[in-house]
Design goal:
single chain, 18% strand, seven-stranded mixed beta sheet, alpha/beta, Rossmann fold, 342 residues, 48% helix, 13 helices
């Protein structure tokens, strides 16, 4: 067959030959959607200049460098969130999103501040999961003075500047967990509460919403004082074992922070997993297994693909809006899983 020409591309695209020529040689003078039409036509007719058109398309897109700072790489939730962010960034068509993701194993505020400043050297906009702390707030404020905007992911943050947020409404999460115990438990009793760290606002607000539900619906449940797992499975296991030993009449366990792997292991080994209603957080291989074997009864989960899509979109709007455009806060609906809807 004869080699496809510019005229063939123009005919297939229903554009003039001069427009196709400009898309090839002067892409800065052609609208992006027109270049896309030319690219699709060129691929359809087998035009030799497809790679050149793709280069033209890339050159017309605004380039945005996004730095994201997540918590421990060994935790499935953050690996899954990282994958979702990468997928969302690649799916953007009107911007070239250059995404860099780093993890923190040592979660002190000082380390978060250092990580944010390091990422800021190669980023236009930042996303971070971090504790609420004056050192973290100070780092975000200093970055804002350099016109680098920050979005809190999963757990809200505050500072003396606008901080975006993309995550769940933690108050509703806690209230929903309370409703789950009230509905599933056959009779009222003691409920243990595990949090990772009270400085994560999402976990503090989860607990507040949880206790609020039972203040509004006093049916005889006794909510024990929250125990910290420090976001670690081994500590969560020890704390759960201690709760089971101290409270042989324990009715429920609300795992609102990190460490569900340890808590689930302790419940299984105690032989009391089927007697205790357990509500946990986020769908991973560990929590899926817990739902399937009856160790976990009710799961509240981030919709990770939606979170990533909304976060990248909000970052693009903040980037395009310039220095005076404040980063948005977006509260997402959450997913609910039981053993029957996996």
């Amino acid at each position: 067959m004869p080699r496809a020409t510019i005229r063939d591309v123009a005919k297939f695209a229903k554009l003039s030959v001069s427009t196709v020529n400009r898309a090839l040689h002067e892409p800065d003078k052609v609208r992006e959607d027109t270049i896309r039409i030319v690219l699709e036509a060129a691929e359809a007719v087998g035009f030799y200049g497809v790679s050149s058109i793709k280069d033209s398309l890339r050159s017309t897109r605004p380039k945005m460098r996004v730095g994201v700072l997540l918590l421990q790489r060994n935790r499935a939730f953050y690996r899954n969130l990282s994958h979702a962010m990468e997928t969302a960034a690649k799916a953007v068509r009107d911007h070239e999103v250059r995404l860099r993701i780093e993890y923190l194993d040592e979660l002190s505020p000082q380390n978060v501040s250092t990580g944010l400043n390091a990422l800021a050297e190669t980023s236009d906009i930042l996303g971070v999961v971090a504790v609420e702390h004056p050192i973290v707030a100070g780092a975000i404020e200093a970055l804002a003075e350099r016109n680098i905007k920050t979005f809190a992911l999963v757990s809200q943050l505050t500072a003396r500047c606008n901080v975006g947020y993309v995550g769940l409404d933690a108050w509703k999460v806690g209230r929903t967990a309370g409703w789950a115990f009230d509905t599933i438990c056959k009779s009222p009793g003691k409920i243990g509460v595990l949090v990772g760290n009270h400085r994560y606002r999402c976990q503090e607000t989860n607990e507040s919403g949880f206790r609020s539900y039972f203040r509004e619906h006093p049916r005889g449940f006794e909510l024990l004082e929250a125990e910290s797992t420090f976001e670690t499975g081994s500590i969560a296991r020890e704390v759960t074992e201690r709760l089971l030993e101290r409270h042989p009449d324990l009715t429920g366990l609300f795992v609102s922070g990190g460490g569900i792997s340890g808590a689930a292991a302790a419940l299984r080994e105690s032989g009391r997993a089927k007697e205790i209603v357990t509500v946990a957080y986020d769908l991973t291989d560990v929590t899926r297994a817990g739902l399937l074997d009856g160790t976990i009864n009710f799961l509240i989960s981030h919709p990770l693909q939606t979170l990533a899509h909304e976060a990248i979109g909000a970052m693009i709007r903040a980037f395009d809006g310039g220095p005076d455009f404040p980063p948005q806060s977006i509260a997402l609906p959450f997913d609910i899983y039981t053993p029957e809807n996996l």
